[in-house]
Specification:
The complex is a heterodimer of chains A (486) and B (494).
Chain A: E1 6-9, E2 12-25, H1 64-76, E3 84-85, E4 88-91, E5 101-104, E6 114-119, E7 125-137, E8 141-143, E9 152-154, E10 161-167, H2 174-191, E11 203-213, E12 222-227, H3 230-249, E13 257-262, E14 267-273, E15 283-284, E16 291-292, H4 295-303, H5 309-318, H6 324-331, H7 334-344, H8 349-367, H9 378-389, H10 395-408, H11 412-419, H12 427-440, H13 442-449, H14 455-466, H15 473-485
Parallel strand pairs in A: 12-13
Antiparallel strand pairs in A: 1-2, 2-10, 2-11, 3-16, 4-5, 4-15, 6-7, 7-10, 8-9, 11-12, 13-14
Helix pairs in contact in A: 2-3, 5-6, 7-8, 7-9, 9-10, 12-14, 12-15, 14-15
Chain B: H1 9-18, H2 23-36, E1 43-46, H3 48-63, E2 75-79, H4 106-113, E3 117-122, H5 161-168, E4 174-179, H6 185-191, E5 194-197, E6 217-222, H7 225-235, E7 265-269, H8 279-294, E8 298-302, H9 307-325, H10 343-354, H11 357-370, H12 376-399, E9 402-406, H13 422-426, H14 433-438, E10 442-449, E11 455-462, H15 467-481
Parallel strand pairs in B: 2-3, 2-4, 7-8, 7-9
Antiparallel strand pairs in B: 1-3, 4-6, 5-6, 5-10, 9-11, 10-11
Helix pairs in contact in B: 2-3, 5-6, 7-15, 9-11, 9-12
Classes of the chains: A alpha+beta (486), B alpha/beta (494).
Chain lengths: 486, 494
């Protein structure tokens, strides 16, 4: 097992225990219990149905798409799917919660226990338990900056379907928590059940942190609410774990609290204590019947699951002969894997992997660009490799062509055509160049012949230069060898 | 010819069809009746213009051969609990002050699609919480019936008191009601009319202001069983917008009124004999059984052993759901708002000003029974009781086809008589609540009068979705009892 995060205090070493609750917005055109649209960035209150606004007499009707997504996600997390689950009301007053209750699942969630695997940088792996996944409604948004005194409410988000995915307290470091989030996000994206876009709020995390001396029972935990980036999750854990250790070592006790992370100052602050915790008065929503799923329904969804990262990684290693490291990198994001597979479809896998992880990643990193926005499409990269394979391009020229493709977005064939970069394999043409080079460097030819073998590379370089890099290096080598031994 | 307001729905339908009078004439008669009966406070909103235009449209359809069936041109009153598009819908609560929905409840939409004519919105207990129609923000409704030799105003029962009075005082040919724990049956019994609570899921709850979602059920209130059958046919049907609505075809309920109940088994549950119940109610019950026996039914003594737990369980479950359902009345988006400096104070002030005492009481009870530490002892226990009550009925229906009981343990009482004694008030629904908890169809039929001359009803409870048998037995009971007495129109101002 990879070493967890150990905090060395004045009284000894402390272990950090972390559990995550991730709220993932279900990818669906409509809300969980109404037909209103879910698009991001719409005009405030333009995507609100009578049900979302909790008008008198309105009733929720479950959106089947959201059920499918939750079940598929459960299957993707190797989890038990509960054939019988119940929607409950979680009651509390807040202006952005129009009904005065959120429809959620309390004691009987649609998905039960599952697991997720983390692959640590040192090559080891960790199994993280998933406690449950349940469906619930999102709330609206309170806007405090629209008026000097009043708060405005935007209900566009109100009623959007969320999957709350709860982990066991199996994580032992901020880094593991970060890996967990990235892995979970990758699985959701592979499944298409959540876009995982944390900036737009479609994925948010609540982090439970406690500390203990190794071997002791769990300490009292604090929950840090509503973190919207992997970096904040990691930062807040670092701060919170040290805060708790400091508190205990100074003779204090950790109080069970809900805390907020202040990203400007990098600290967590108390939001409310256990005593102030709401009594949500959960009870089964009488407007909705229990959700009953047939085995056939679950099987049908299981049969249509895409290949998920862990299985894909295995296949890349076993069938494509990629190293475990390369396979892990390529499957980490669905977009990368898709890209790679398109390129690898017509080419040797290792070559495709090298190009994707080498040239492409290099260029993308330099441009700080996600692969989805790459100016070089997978088809175009495949086209470049075609030209490499049929000898039209040399390896060196191919790299230049790639750079040109990346900066202009044009295809390899177009660039090669326009710039006349086609590799010269015609031995007559190359022979002429070889003749010129040898004639111009007769002193070096003499040195070579008297045993200075190293000069061979010099001749190759000169010929390539004369050909502006277009000469086929193999042909150049052969011709040079022949001429120099004449 | 008698006044058009004296007609039944069935007779009006036939008269319209025969061309004896127009829908417009029928509507005008009822508009006048409504205007002359304001002393009863049965309607909280009159919509005469709407009624006239509905009626004119109906006549036009009829003259061009496009009549939409038995309800086309029939003037109805609508309980204020139903949301009606463009028309104030306030559940008789101050918290819905000025609330005019942009949408139409499924049940009323069905009625308008069937050609019915809207006379106005009827008074009711606030949010349907009450058994005397005294909790309405718009003041109490007065029962058209009076005790002999006693002019004290009596309550019409509740919560659908305004609807019951509108029908009993002949202000409308029929009215919609809703029944959560007797709110159709008890006022119908008090006012001497037919009230029908369908099986839970038979009529859509969409657009009906929610009281207790697992119990609420709209139904018709009429002067005859046939009228109830006709009106139910216009209200019922599957609604994909209500997840608890049932996808079953709507039968021709009127066709179920064959008058033949020979061989039918009628259960008499011993547990409905209550200490202190007036003997005249007991006698009427016996009489009802005799009438049905005389019509060829078999009378069977049955047991519903958990009956006595139904009322307490109801008064846990209904307020629990209500406490949550009524959380949306927060002064933010519609209805009353009492401004304050911060959001919590605004909630408190708005809700304190908007809700009456009975509604506040039930919200508090409901909040309490759902609270951490009390949930298992109250809400969960009550749900268990609900299950055994359902099982009692299920077992009983192995042996019988319908169950006959009194509708209420007493007749109409005076305004203020039970005010301040909520427990006594809750006893009104003692016999109505078990069928509500079990979701069963149940009707009340006017079967006789008390010694003081007040109407009494008998209740018939049927199997799930067997409205037809309930109606059939109801009509036999109706013709056997042949109650012809009517209240004197003392309220009329012409």
């Amino acid at each position: 097992m990879a070493a967890g995060m150990i905090i060395t205090g004045t009284t000894g070493d402390w272990e950090v225990v972390i559990g995550l609750e991730v709220h993932a917005q279900v990818t669906s055109n409509a809300k969980l219990f109404s037909g209103a649209a879910t698009a991001f960035g719409a005009k405030p209150n333009s995507q609100v149905s009578l049900v979302d606004a909790a008008m008198p007499g309105m009733l929720p009707v479950i959106n089947e798409v959201c059920i499918r997504q939750a079940v598929r996600t459960g299957l993707g997390l190797n989890a038990t799917i509960n054939r019988y689950s119940v929607f409950d009301r979680k009651n509390y007053f807040y202006p952005d919660l129009p009904a005065g209750y959120q429809i959620s699942q309390y004691t009987q969630p649609v998905v039960g226990a599952g697991k997720l695997y983390l692959y640590m940088p040192d090559g080891s792996s960790r199994e993280i338990g998933i406690t449950r996944l349940h469906l619930e409604q999102d709330a609206g948004k309170s806007l405090h900056d629209q008026h000097p005194k009043n708060t405005y409410v935007d209900l566009n988000r109100a009623g959007i379907g969320l999957m709350e995915i709860v982990s066991e307290p199996d994580l032992r470091s901020a880094e593991e928590a970060g890996l967990y989030l990235r892995k979970l996000r990758a699985i959701l994206r592979y499944l298409g059940s959540c876009d995982g876009n944390m900036e737009q709020g479609s994925m948010r995390a609540d982090v439970n942190v406690s500390v203990r001396k190794t071997g002791e029972p769990y300490g009292t935990r604090c929950e840090i609410k509503n973190l919207n980036s992997v970096r904040f999750v990691e930062q807040s854990i670092h701060y919170e774990a040290r805060r708790q250790v400091g508190l205990i070592e100074e003779g204090g006790t950790v109080e069970q609290q809900t805390r907020l992370f202040d990203s400007d100052r990098g600290v967590t602050r108390p939001m409310r204590s256990k005593e102030e915790a709401h009594d949500y008065r959960y009870f089964p929503d009488p407007d909705l019947l229990p959700l009953e799923l047939t085995e056939a329904y679950i099987d049908e969804l299981r049969a249509t699951l895409p290949e998920l990262p862990d299985i894909k990684k295995q296949r890349y290693a076993d069938e494509l002969g990629l190293s475990a490291y390369d396979a892990a990198v390529l499957v980490a994001e669905k977009e990368t894997a898709d890209y790679f597979e398109t390129v690898a479809a017509g080419h040797e896998a290792k070559l495709a992997a090298n190009w994707v992880m080498g040239e492409l990643y290099g260029a993308l990193n330099k441009a700080v660009m996600p692969i989805a926005e790459s100016p070089v499409s997978a088809q175009d990269l495949s086209g470049l490799l075609d030209l490499l394979a049929d000898g039209t391009l040399s390896g060196r020229i191919a790299k230049d062509v790639f750079e040109e493709m990346f900066s202009t977005g044009r295809s390899a064939a177009t660039i090669v055509e326009e710039q006349g970069l086609k590799q010269v394999t015609d031995s007559g043409e190359i022979e002429a160049l070889v003749g010129t080079v040898l004639a111009e460097n007769q002193d070096k030819v003499a040195e070579y012949k008297s045993g200075k073998d190293k000069l061979f590379g010099f001749f190759v370089g000169q010929v390539m230069k004369e050909s502006q890099g277009k000469a086929n290096p193999q042909v150049v080598n052969e011709l040079l060898k022949r001429k120099l031994t004449d | 010819m008698a006044e058009l307001t004296d007609l039944t729905i069935a007779a009006a339908r036939d008269g319209l069809k025969a061309g004896d009078f127009s829908a417009k004439e029928l509507a005008d008669s009822h508009i006048r009746a409504v205007e002359s009966a304001r002393a009863l406070n049965a309607l909280v909103l009159e919509t005469p213009d709407r009624a006239r235009s509905d009626a004119t449209a109906s006549d036009k359809r009829r003259s061009s051969g496009q009549s939409r069936g038995p309800l086309d041109g029939i003037p109805l009153a609508i309980k204020d609990l139903f949301c009606t598009a463009g028309i104030l819908s306030r559940a008789c609560s101050n918290i819905l002050d000025g609330f005019t929905p942009t949408y139409e409840s499924t049940v009323t939409a069905n009625l308008w699609a069937a050609g019915a004519v809207m006379l106005g919105k009827t008074n009711m207990d606030e949010f349907a919480m009450g058994s005397s129609n005294e909790t309405s923000f718009f003041g109490p409704v007065t029962n058209p019936w009076r005790r002999e030799g006693d002019n004290r105003p009596l309550v019409p029962g509740g919560s659908s008191g305004g609807s019951a009075v509108a029908v009993a005082a002949k202000l409308a040919l029929g009215a919609t009601g809703t029944d959560t724990g007797g709110s159709i049956r008890q006022p119908a019994s008090f006012c001497g009319i037919v009230g029908f609570k369908p099986t839970y899921g038979r009529c859509s709850r969409w657009g009906v202001v929610a009281f207790a979602s697992s119990l609420d059920q709209p139904g018709p209130m009429t002067r005859t069983v046939r009228d109830a059958a006709i009106m139910l046919g216009g209200m019922a049907g599957h609604d994909p917008k209500d997840s608890t609505s049932v996808d079953l075809p709507v039968p021709d309920y009127e066709a179920a009124l064959t008058g033949d109940i020979r061989g039918l088994r009628v259960g008499i549950p011993a547990e409905y004999r209550m200490d202190g119940m007036p003997p005249e109610i007991e006698q009427l019950w016996q009489q009802g059984a005799n009438w049905l026996r005389d019509a060829g039914a078999e009378i069977v003594d049955i047991k519903l052993p958990h009956t006595k737990y139904a009322l307490p369980a109801y008064h846990v479950i209904a307020p629990a759901e209500a406490s949550s359902n009524l959380a949306r009345y927060d002064g933010i988006r519609f209805g009353l708002r009492v401004p304050a400096d911060d959001i919590t104070a605004q909630y408190e002030k708005t809700r304190a000003a908007g809700f009456g005492a009975e509604v506040r009481r039930r919200i508090m009870i409901g909040t309490y029974v759902l609270s951490a530490g009390y949930y298992d002892a109250y809400y969960l226990k009550a749900q268990q009781v609900r299950n055994v009550v359902f099982t009692d009925f299920k077992t009983a229906f192995d042996a019988v086809d319908v169950i006959l009981t009194p509708t209420a343990p007493f007749a109409a009482f005076a305004h203020g008589e039970l005010a301040g004694d909520p427990i006594a008030m809750y006893l009104n629904d003692l016999f109505a609540v078990p069928a509500s908890l079990a979701g069963l169809p149940a009707t009340t039929i006017p079967a006789g009068l008390t010694d003081a001359g007040l109407p009494l009803g008998l209740q018939i409870v049927g199997r799930t979705f067997d409205e037809e048998t309930v109606l059939r037995v109801g009509q036999v009971l109706e013709s056997a009892s042949s109650v012809t007495a009517e209240p004197e129109a003392w309220w009329r101002v012409d």
